[in-house]
């Protein structure tokens, strides 16, 4: 009966109902894993049906930042187990499944006030507004660069950490493994700028931590565009094996995305021919997104 009642409610009410954000799902869509880097580590925290949150830990100061904490209970459990101090919230964009847990996280914090960083005044609890591209700030001993990538939303931010040989970027709903976000508040020109002019220019070794577990459907779309692309075939096999074990597909790398992601390959003639837009990568971006939306 509850399910029937819930399904009859308008989607806007459902998505903005705080009771849906009070507790994480009892069964996570993926296992929690930790990726070690030299000066820091990243813990992958699944949330909702396909979201990812990320706990970024500075190894030297034991400070932690959380990316898109939609499930606060999961976040606090990870903070306690890692014995770190949560000081910072990195919000990629204002959508409820990324920023909807901010208020509860802030209210349940018993330590000093959390610093909530983002690029949109629609973000709950925002304390630091990023209104320019490539703004740097210090987190513990780490430097984080804020990359403005408007399109999915007008205030979308990607967070880039570069420490020596270690590079990671948290891309929210701009860049996915094998795909990109919908152009809800922006244009193909903006997504082209975000993917090709900004993210593609990061070192190829940069680890990419995206906002959702969409890898299999994205890679299948990539094969629809480039059926003979062996890199996509290989990655799809790898991801399918991981998902059977409930292992998350993340992280990817910038270098790999240039080989497997059609939206990162809009300057390649093999992709342009599919959309009949040879010589026009921005139109290719638009047509690709339209094609993906309508499949």
TrEMBL record:
Names of the cofactor(s): Zn(2+)
Catalyzed reaction equations = an S-(2-hydroxyacyl)glutathione + H2O = a 2-hydroxy carboxylate + glutathione + H(+)
Q: Which UniProt keywords apply?
A: Hydrolase, Metal-binding, Zinc
Q: Pfam families attached here? A: HAGH_C, Lactamase_B
Q: Which SMART domains match?
A: Lactamase_B
Quote one Gene Ontology molecular function term.
metal ion binding
Q: In which pathway does it act?
A: Secondary metabolite metabolism; methylglyoxal degradation; (R)-lactate from methylglyoxal: step 2/2
Q: Which residues form the Metallo-beta-lactamase domain?
A: 50-212
Q: What is its EC number?
A: 3.1.2.6
The UniProt entry's GO biological process terms, in alphabetical order, are: methylglyoxal catabolic process to D-lactate via S-lactoyl-glutathione; RNA 3'-end processing
The protein's matches in NCBIfam families, at most eight in alphabetical order, are given as: GSH_gloB (TIGR03413)
Its family remark reads:
Belongs to the metallo-beta-lactamase superfamily. Glyoxalase II family.
Xref: HAMAP family: Glyoxalase_2
Q: What is this protein called?
A: hydroxyacylglutathione hydrolase
State the organism named in the record. Answer: Macrosiphum euphorbiae (potato aphid)
